[in-house]
Amino acid sequence: MTATVDTTVTSTATSTNPVLRVAPASPAAAVAHFGASLAFHADVSDVASALAAGGDLGFVVLDSRSTASWDQGHVPGAIHLPTALVPEQAEQLLDRSVPVVTYCWGPGCNGATRAALALAELGFQVKEMLGGFEYWVREGFAYETWEGGGRRAADPLTAPVEAADCGC
User: Fold this and answer.
1) Residue 43 forms beta bridges with which residues?
2) What dihedral do alpha carbons 103, 106, 108, 114 form, nearest 10°?
């Protein structure tokens, strides 16, 4: 006797499983969504890898935080342009033909999103760096401050401690 396994997803009205309360998107919708997400976002590991490789990055990194925040620490080589100043200063500081990767404090801050929106409205190609400066530091990447450089050990909850690559 062979057992059959029911692989259907119950309707949203009857499902008690919180994960499947709303059914997953179709594969085609998932391709569109996740493809778009990657067009709009970069993660700190990819940005760090590109910076470490040197040469022409093909993009610039923009820190959209305040001057006090910038002084406290920022990604090496980043351009400082607070979100509120993007509309009036972006064209003097950035080349419209070079994509921009924005970042702010971290996942709880939408300053990089607002800066990315302002840049896109001005005609710039833009991505947002997921995790912001918080995850840059938590993953153990070097940073600069007004006093010089710094680096902290990688947080084992956010980055591999013994490996150069997380495997994502």
Assistant:
1) 130
2) 0
What is the DSSP annotation of 8-61?
PPPPTTT---TTTSSPPPPHHHHHHHHHHHHHHEEEHHHHHHHHHH-S--SSEE
Cα–Cα distance for residue pair 74/20, rounded to 1 Å: 40
Q: Residue type for 141, please? A: F
DSSP 157: T
Instruction: Provide the token pair at 42.
Output: 């970069």
Q: What is the pTM of this model?
A: 0.84
- In tens, the pLDDT along 80-103 reads 999 999 999 999 999 999 999 999
Q: Residue 102 contacts by C-beta under 8 Å, 6 or more apart in sequence?
A: 62, 64, 112, 113, 115, 116, 119, 126, 127, 128, 129
